User: What shape does this take?
Amino acid sequence: MQLTRNMSKAMKATRRRENLSAYLFLTPALLFFAGFVIFPMGMCLVTSFFNYSMTDFSFIAFDNYVEMFSDPTFGKSLVNTIVIVVVSVPTVCLFSLWVASVIYKMNSFKTSFFRCVFYLPVVTGSVAVTVVWKWIFNNYYGLLNALCKTLGIITKNVNWLGDPAYALWCIIMILFTTSIGQPIVLYVSALGNVDHSLVEAAQVDGATNRQVFWKIKWPQIMPTTLYILIITTINSFQCFALIQLLTNGGPNYATSTIMYYIYYNAFKLNRYGYGSAMGVILAVIIALFSLAQFRLAKNDR
Amino acid sequence: MQKTVPVKKMRVSKPGSDDHSVQKITVYRVICVILLIVMALLFMFPLYWIITGSFKTKQAVISRTPELFPSQFVTTNYESLFQKPAFTWLWNTVLMCAGSMILTCLCAAMAGYPLAKKKFTGRKIVFSVFICAMALPKQVILIPLLKEMAFLKMHDTLWAVILPTVGWPFGVFLMKQFSENIPDEMLEAAKIDGAGEIKTFTHIVFPMIKPGVGALAIFTFITAWNDYFLQLIMLNDTRVLTISLGIAKLQSELSTDYGLIMAGAALGSVPIIIIFLIFQKFFTRGITMGAVKG
Amino acid sequence: MKKLLAILMAVMMMMSISSVMAEDNVEITLWTYPIGNWVDPETVDGIIANFNAVYPNIKVTVNYLDYTSGDDQVTGAIEARTTPDIIMEGPERLVTNWGAAGKMLPVNDLWTEEALADISAGSEAVVAACKGADGNYYEYPLCMTTHTMVIDRAAFEAAGALQYVDVETRTWTTEGFVNACRALTDAGYMTGVVYCGGQGGDQGTRALVNNLYSGRFTNAEHTAYTADSEENIQGLTLLQDMVNEGILMADPSIVAGDEIALFCNGTITMGFCWNASAAVSNKASMADGIDPLPMAFPSDDGVPELCGGIWGFGIFDNGDAARAEAAKNFIRFVCDDAQQGPASVYATGFFPVRASFGDVYAGTDKEANGEFMVFMPFLGDYYNVTGGWAVQRTEWWNLLQRVFGGGNVTEEVATYVANANASIK
Assistant: This one.
């Protein structure tokens, strides 16, 4: 009896020590996190109940939320955001996996070269990249029109960024080029680290390359895939600078995302309260999305 | 190194080396490589266009018939760029990115270890909150953040951009994933040897997660680099501008000097390419992500 | 680890150094939007040096804004309470937006009797524009201009369209405009592009729509937007018809700056966003063979009403009397000084609001700017002081995008007017 009590006492002490050291290690991160994410998020939640503009700050309870759900532009922006995420996340993942699977077996110079090349759009910076893309998509003498005409795909110039039917796809395409750099890098290293004894064993057993890939390599790079899914999701939700610099959400809100619409309300119309309310909703959506992704990947293992 | 795999390894293969020496040249592979080269050319094109554009005349840079190579090679764009404090902007950018990078890596590495390896009260809750906030775009909380920075007298300093970047919980998540890979036996052994927590962290944990820290470093650097809007709202003074803000300000309402913008962009991409080349050796050393655990 | 810490310390130290500043003298900040050469550090530093020769104890720091993101920056600064002391822009921002929101200090004492008389002699509209609804002045103006359009004379001549243009008075009729567009299209030229991409340059599209049938943008009292008037509906419908006919283009993917680039490289033969400053700053970009001819907007009666541009200075209310006083000294020096005043105007490329300055371009490099003097008699009502201007502007772009996206003009202007008028407080 005495012994077990001593044991449990000792365990409690250990536990307390563990707690203390764990939280000490966590302190810097928690401090920054609480100070510059949680606290402003709380402020955002509070201001979402106010009619908050440059001249006004009055409590209006849920009016901002009520207005939001009857605002057609908000609906449109939500749909656009979802389209961007749903299209670009799998495309980026699959494409980067393909590139990585082709280049990881090359010699180290070639691998480095391709890795670097696919990283270039990431490092060039949004402002400059949009200048180039604006020219490529140009309605009058743009590269894409010239190319498509030569190939006989189109007969008349298409106003890629000015046509609601294409504009969002153009944004997704540019987003794609600026998002695949990181996943490729990660997949190359993950594929390079796949356990060889298993691959060889499978090959001895007569497995085809495809079988080796999906049965042996794919499960092993799963954690990397999760990581890539998450950063690509972040990237897609944050797609904002491209839109602001390229289309201003137009034509007629065809490329407006929630992110852009928040900006538009807060900075163009100075409706901070309304912007905050949308921010809260976006935060909830993103949190659910991340959590779901995480659980999914966990079960899939 | 992966936990789920039996420890015995018949042969240690160097990652990145051509370990498929018996690889057959198949039609599929040829098609893949050709496709890859085409894609690579497409991806190189914007930077190529920017660099050549920065050497074109004002007339040529907006010409209707594009010049693949400047017919008249001029350096006037760079001359007018350097009349502006372009190097200060570049330095600010590097400072801002390096500051964000170092602080993030430090905080995240420290936080990832206990989340992965210690069983403490509230672990599940702390980690879930981190996960939920991970993908939140900073712009959502920009106005409160702005007020907070003004209150802290940090608005219009580089801190206003660095601190929110460091606060972002993504790094913590990543470091936690990497820390999962550390064999418990090693930590136990360190404890038995009488190593304190700090020593365990610096001598065992940190070296083990180093490749992960490299990945996080580059990711943070680039995130900070590309976070144009945060910079725009937080920084005003010409002396604290970053290069992308400086470039954006070169556009005026009725005449846009594309040559100048391209010169700015070309200058701005140099340091980040260097950073990439330095840190990419971390990747070849091999990153293995830890298994996914709640 | 140690190395990492060392780097961290170094970074921190470097940053703290840059934030330390001496506070002995008065230090004021000036933010300018890109107005002529007021975007060019060499010019602005020169002006500040002249100022410091007279006021050595006032240190002026400049920050340059652009029209794409400048407003966002000012909004941010207002929320963070880090606004500059002096800001240089037009009454639509200084008076209507920030002045009405109570963020600016009245600058009534700058408007001395002498100044009032001199500026009134130039244009009464300028005086009215700088005055807020509460009767206080929130802007002290430096220069003004008329916003015009521009055509490529060479192309017009080649297409036989020059006959529709009065080259002397720089005016043309709505009918002439339509005919010219047809002639140009027949000759294989692209005419003009109604840019609907947002941000700056809205004055060009407004003037185009309003002038076609002599409509008004707001009512005479500047209390309501009147895009739904019969004349404006007629104007928008005509433009919509012309786009459908293929003799004019509308493009939601480009902004005013892009449109000008299209004009400069010879893609299109008329631009709707032009003024004296644009003529100077785009000179070097103009492709060979293009002969830009500034024109008034086409009007059914041949008498255009051009949008005015007014630029000057305002002072943000930062609660510091010493800085406000220093800011006023700066504005007085820049705008009123017998030597600096005309030089400040010269730097903008526009025209002085003070009648007594006369022609600041005679005998200088920018003599060609005198060409724009011909438009001054057509200066129309300065309606930019109507409330809710910022909201109206974004709604205006949306209106154009909807109309040229095939919307019904009457319905779309109704939406625009409802939204824009709702924002007038």
The first helix of chain B runs from residue 27 to 53. Residues 13 and 19 of chain B are 7 Å apart (CA to CA).
